[in-house]
Write a structure and sequence with these properties.
By secondary structure, the protein is of the alpha/beta class. The chain is built from 14 helices and seven strands. The chain has a five-stranded mixed β-sheet. A two-stranded antiparallel ribbon has the order 6-7. A hairpin with a 4-residue loop joins strand 1 and strand 2. The radius of gyration is 26 Å and the shape is globular.
Length: 362
Amino acid sequence: MDYFCGLDVGMDESAICVVDDKGEVVLQTTAVTDPEAIRTSLKPYLGRLRRLGHEAGALSPWLHPELLKLGLPAVCLETLHVRAALKAQRNKTDKTDALGIAHLMRTGWFRKAHIKSEACYRLRLLLTHRRNLKRKFLDLENAVRHSLKAFGIRLNRVGRGGFARAVRETVAGDALVSELIDAMLNARAALWKEYCRLHDLVVKLVASHELCRRFMQIPGVGPVAALSFMTAIDDPSRFRRSRDVAAYFGLTSRRWQSGASIDVQGRISKAGDGDVRRALYEAASALLTRYKKKDKVKSWGLAIRKRSSHRKATVAVARKLAVIMHAMWIDGTFYCGDPDAPKADVTARTAAKERKLLGVHA
């Protein structure tokens, strides 16, 4: 008799449920969220335990490899797929979630989630903290702008460099407001300093990574977009086709079809990593609006913009960039947007871009 286990992981305790190949429950218990404790609870069934499923979550990068090291047949499940499968349950508790996951393991109706390498998670942590610092910085800046509106002060056409000086000059005559605003500006300056520190670290890592430098040969793709894409994919071989990457990042249209009368294609799904999707969108927008030279992808996007809209064209180009970058990764090839350009010009432009990138940390 084979056994299948469902694990509902919590911060402190995890619910465990084991069912046999006929669907009968043979064990329902809880254990401390620790690989050794989970293995101890499953010890009577280890000989015939075929699959142990757990939902992808914050603890998965640590828990999943540790379960595998202990010899447990762990499978990390896609969150959206598990959530849809468990909607049929009348009540939602940790106990019933573990039971539902156990039945998913028994029936085989599940999708595996990819667990990235530890080095990849470290780089993603850098990108996440950089993004968080930038958001907090902008929150403080917007709070200062909003608070000054109560006094009729509107800061128009003030750049980031001269923002603090302009604000201090406008409130110099009010001692209390000046003190309050000065505290906000000091916090803003500290956040900007630390943000620049992390951004420089991103540029330094990209400059030393050959794959990211190849990605940056694509017009519009900068250090953040290149590193975000690389860390989100981690292993390019897990995609059978390069065009599957666009759907993975939510850049393909939703579809709702039923019978012969209903077939609706909606907006993009926005599934997957939002940071990578935004980075690709920004890269596509820069390619369409700021890159002045001839480029095949740009020409294709401009044709879409002419018959549709700028937003749809940008999404289409972002989708195209994701496919191109994955193909470059798989094939080890280089980007050449203008096939008519002399090879020497392409090489010189690539070398100049790399020197500019490396020169930041020379």
